[in-house]
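Workshop exercise sheet. Pairs work together: one partner reads the sequence aloud, the other fills in the structure field after running the prediction. Swap roles for the next sheet.
Pair: D.N. / O.F.
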Amino acid sequence: MHSARYVEYNFSPSEAWAAYNFTGWREGMADRSMSHDPVITPRKGRNLFILDVAVPLADLPEMPAGLSLTAVVEEETGRKSYWALTHGSPDKPDFHDPACFAATLAAPEVP
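Structure field:
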């Protein structure tokens, strides 16, 4: 399920986005073509922030796939924090570390 190849999607509250294919750990980075732009909807509550993102199923990698959910949060003061399901290295954030791919995205069920 976990292979050397992986896909990276970056989504921002500004609704900017990027998608990349990698052939290996931080190797072979190339733009990933998408059938159309993801739909990005930022929502701000009183004490929370939600970023909804809709990506066409056809633009996702083959499933099942290892999954790493990560976030870089920059506060108004400029302070940054790095969030992940798990961090591969205790020394510095590296969202490309294979250890970060701690979850599995299953293929959709077709009735």
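Discussion prompt: The two ends are 24 Å apart (CA to CA). What would you look at next?
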